[in-house]
Structures are given as structure tokens and as C-alpha cells.
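re: ur question from earlier - yeah i can do the single chain one, its not a big deal. heres the input i used so u can compare w yours
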Amino acid sequence: MAKEKGSFKEFLSAVAPEYQAFVEKLNNKLIKQGCDLVIKEAKSGYAASYQLEKKTVMNWVFRKSGVLARIYGDNAGKYEDIIASLPAEMQKKRMFFLLTNETAEHIARLVCAEVTVRKSAS
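and the output i got, formated as C-alpha cells:
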């Protein structure tokens, strides 16, 4: 794991307590799937990026509103069924989602679908 300015523990402690377990679980899943985690300190807090073969799959970004997941859906066309199953609000957001109890599992499904497609392509 790349040692940047912040550790995963520090990043996790900046996440709202009610979402820490989810973020940690997703982190473990992505690491297991071969993603590298890169954590940097940004003005608004930490930014954590998950990369597969040096290409970003997803970032966690802190904003005043909370933690946002930015998913790089390069292969979104290959899992349109998952995108179609998203709540309408999330379908409008172009892969940039505020982490809430409602969006958490959808975020996990999207990013895991993207990782799966990228891995099968490589």
C-alpha cells in the first residue's frame, strides 16, 4: 500500500462514524480484488483513491455535505443493469454520490462491477 501523507486509519476516522464500517468493508473488498489504495490530504480533508493497474476506479472525497464517492465508470456500458437498478436520484448524478444509508450498497455494487469488468479486460 502506498504510504502517502495519511493512513487508512486516519482517513477512516474522518468518515462519519455511522459509515465507517461500510467504508472499511468496501476497502477490504477492493483491496482483495487487487486495487491499490492511495490516500492524500486535500484542503477539505482526505482523498482516498482506489486504483487498478494505476488507473483510478473510485475516490472518496470529503465535502461539507459529507463523504462523496466518485466512481470512474469507464466500462459503465457493461453493467447497465446495475445502473438501471439505481434510484432515480443516483442515475442523474453521473457516478458522483454522497454516501448515505440509501446509497452505500449501490456505491459498493457499482465500484465492484467496474473492477470486475476492468479485471476481465486486462
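The longest strand covers residues 55-63. not sure if urs matches, ping me
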